[in-house]
Design goal:
This protein has about 325 residues and is α/β, with parallel strands linked by helices. It has two domains: about 5-225, Rossmann fold (3-Layer(aba) Sandwich); about 235-300, Protein-tyrosine phosphatase receptor IA-2 ectodomain (Alpha-Beta Plaits), CATH 3.30.70.2470. The protein has eleven helices and 14 strands. The strands form three sheets. The protein has a six-stranded mixed β-sheet, with helices on both faces. Helix 4 (about 110-125) crosses helix 5 and helix 8 packs across helix 11 (about 305-315). It is elongated, with a radius of gyration of 25 Å. The two termini are about 35 Å apart. The relative contact order is 0.13. The model has no long low-confidence stretch (mean pLDDT about 90). The chain binds adenosine-5'-triphosphate. Adenosine-5'-triphosphate binds near residues 18, 38 and 43.
Length: about 325
């Protein structure tokens, strides 16, 4: 069921003559993790700033939690937690002291602030590092503390701008699964801006691809892949022990099968593009023909291919 919590309508922003965001309409549902993808300068940060009421749209509206962000920026900031790519802390204070400070600034009562700060640090996996100086935290730990900084305000929406910048691969994995867990457990809506396709692919329910201020396309991976690759959405790659004998005859027979669209034979391998996933039937067919199969691989179109395709076709237009 759709329950939009972020609604952007015809959102447009000019900086002088530069159109940073071009007529953007988008809605994100409660509890969804939405990935905002695009190269440098695509307009992601400008869009986020307009959602937070920190930049004024030239045209259109940004509504978050039912609040018009331009007209009521303070009310929006109470509902939305924003984590920039790099969060600053007081290096000579402990992590807990930093978080308590943020808590107080956000109006948490004195008798509650320590408990809330400790609970939040536990939540982001820093329960055993409470008393370490923030200056001695690693980049990955700082990002977790940045997330705690956002979460202690109990927001309905969390906006993360390149949250994994500078974290090592295992730290990235942990950070992303933490975000996914929090979103699922607490119904938190997350907007994640990034140009790291693999990361976005790992945790986002839906993605929007931005290029030059325009949202080229949005949807979940399956929909995007189907729209782009259409009838060739399912590709099975089969490798045989030796070069395929009577390849022409075999190809003819395969083409008669319902659902097979395209066949590419190269040496001892064959790539079959199909309307549905025909892998089991194809394997049965080859086994019946007595062909020794050494490998079967179902090709999945990832965000890399999807992004590349949209990007290429946008440049050509
Ligand atoms: N304050 C500003 N004044 C003038 N132009 C700006 C300003 N901020 C952004 N722009 C321009 O607007 C366009 C979009 O920039 P924006 O920072 O929103 O993109 P982005 O997708 O967030 O990029 P990145 O991934 O590099 O952060 C760019 O052409 C940029 O140069």
């Amino acid at each position: 069921m759709n329950n939009p919590i972020i609604e952007l309508e015809g959102l447009t922003k000019y900086y002088g003559s530069v159109k940073a965001v071009d007529n953007l309409s988008l809605s994100v549902n409660k509890g969804e993790i939405f990935g905002l993808l695009g190269p440098n300068g695509a307009g992601k940060t400008t869009t986020i700033l307009m959602m937070l009421g920190l930049a004024e749209p030239s045209k259109g509206t940004a509504t978050v939690c039912g609040i018009n962000a331009t007209k009521n920026p303070i009310a929006v900031k109470r509902k939305v937690g924003y984590m920039p790519d790099s969060v600053g802390f007081y290096d000579n204070l402990t992590a807990l002291e930093n978080l308590e400070y943020i808590g107080r600034l956000n109006g948490i009562a004195e008798n509650e602030v320590e408990i809330r700060a400790k609970e939040t640090m536990e939540l982001v996996g820093l329960g055993s590092e409470l008393h370490k100086k923030a200056g001695a935290y690693s980049r990955g730990m700082k990002q977790r503390l940045g997330l705690a900084d956002v979460l202690i305000r109990q927001p309905d929406v969390v906006i993360l701008d390149e949250p994994t910048l500078g974290i090592d691969p295992s730290g990235i994995k942990e950070f992303l699964s933490l975000i996914r867990k929090l979103s699922r457990q607490q119904g938190l809506t997350v907007l994640l801006s990034s140009h790291h396709l693999h990361q976005v692919q790992q945790i986002c329910d839906r993605v929007g691809i931005f290029v030059e201020g325009k949202l080229l396309v949005e949807g979940n991976l399956e929909t995007l892949s189907f729209n782009l690759f259409g009838k060739d959405s399912y590709t099975t790659l089969v490798t045989f022990q030796d070069a395929i004998p009577d390849a022409g005859l075999l190809e003819k027979e395969l083409r008669m099968m319902n659902g097979v669209n395209n066949i590419l034979i190269e040496g001892n391998s064959m790539e079959l593009s199909c309307e549905v996933d025909m892998t089991p039937g194809l394997v049965r067919f080859f086994v019946q023909k007595g062909l020794p199969i050494t490998g079967v691989h179902k090709k999945e179109y990832g965000l890399d291919e999807i992004y590349q395709r949209y990007f290429e076709s946008n440049i050509k237009n």
